[in-house]
Amino acid sequence: MERASSGAAALGPATRPVQRPPVVKHGRTDQRDNMEALRQPQPTQQVQPSKTGPPRSPFPLDPVEKARRQMGYRNNWNRNPVDQDSQVRWPEPLSLNPAVAIIGGGMSGLMCARELARLGIRSTVFDTGKHGVGGRMATRASGEPSLRSGTGSRGKPAVQLGGLRFDHAAQFFTVTDPLFQGVVDEWLKEGLVRVWDGPVGKLRADMGAFYPLPASPPRYVSTGGMRSLAERVAEQLLLHGEGARPGARGPGLVEVKRPVWIGKMQAEEGRGWTLQGEGQRQGVYDVVVIAHNGKCANRLVGPAGAPRVAEQLMRLRLNAVWALMVAFDGPVPVPFEGAFIQGSPVLSWAGNNTAKMQLRHAPNDLECWTVFSTNAYGQANKVPQEAIPADVADKIAGEMLAAFKQATSGTASSPGTDRWPRPVFTRVQLWGAALPLNTPGLPCILDPDSRVGVCGDWLMGGSLQAAAVSGISLARKIAGLRGKSGPEQLAPFKLGLGTPFTPLRATDIGEFPH
């Protein structure tokens, strides 16, 4: 292994609408103004000045601002400078039987492990998930540790209500890439996914008008929630060696460790990359795949010895969204099962989990919905997401419920069904580093000198398809790198190290290729 100096890398038309509203333009400035209005504290009874101290404000402190002050939180993203002289270069060719560490067990990490197994390469997937693998393929369900209770000052235990289940990140996915279509076809045959036929479209919140989207391309959902798909993929890799080529050692090629948080990676001369996590060594690997992003990935890779990879990770910008999981005591009177919400400063999506997953509840009339905020609202109300105070949870749930009701006020499906049901369970979660705002527009990043690669949806957009294709593409590049050394042989494997980023045009909940 050598550490040598290197130069810095350059940086459908919808069908006929139910109602045709007049053209109303909403700019970002308007949304910011609306956001500020939402954040304004409401006056309370005048408080008399204290005799022992300065007069107190007659306005209560906003719960979000209060939490930020108490926790010393600032909504920023510090990026430490990268040491270009720290570049690691391994002098020996990559082993023909390398050990690969994949840090992140979302779709891209799992598909990378799947393809590596197909090519006869061993890998270990490290995931931080407490309730299962999947990353943003996340589902919470009553009767499981993932959903013991609601949030806020009146959070009820989920066990009081039966059959609650919420996809609170990825909602559905579409397919246009033949590589991913082959994988999805296998899932369809196995009954892991199905087509979501329910009405999905665009909801104009300012006018209450719903526009259905075409049924093509099909919208796919997991039959038991998105997390169950990720868990099934992992089970197939562990138990059956699914995807392994004939003659390859299928079972045993993939190991999944969770919950494990990898906090340090260090190059050891003559050995490889040593990973540290959970207070102990987690093994030595020939190749490291970064299959997650955000501050944690930046802190891990920044000082490790792959500066060009670190710089690309640090150029990524991510949005922030609040997810509201809410169970109503009856059907919500709307003509859709899923809607991209436009013209609201608060909401970007609402989806009916009960209809989408064909759930059964106790009581029978319950209806489970997932509602997402806009990025603007998420940023304005961002707090440390690991411990959300009850008053913040109350504020977020209250504002998002009010915005949901207001946005759907003109869409009641028939006369007499406009009674708004009562929310009987709410839980909020902040995705503080959710989906990409910019992208380099390529399948993966690979530095063959340090043998560090990156896969993830953000490299080509923000879709489940992009994540899967990215993981598969990186696995194939790693396989091709075996036995290679020297500048000439490694040059074709240098991918994305200087590719510029461009803004990503997508919804606040991701891309859906069509």
TrEMBL record:
Which superkingdom? Eukaryota
Enumerate the residue ranges of region (Disordered). Answer: 1-63, 132-155
* A Pfam family: NAD_binding_8
> Which stretches are tagged as biased composition: Polar residues?
41-51
| Start-end of Basic and acidic residues biased regions | 27-36
Q: Which PANTHER family match?
A: EXPRESSED PROTEIN, FAD/NAD(P)-BINDING OXIDOREDUCTASE FAMILY PROTEIN
- This protein is called Amine oxidase domain-containing protein
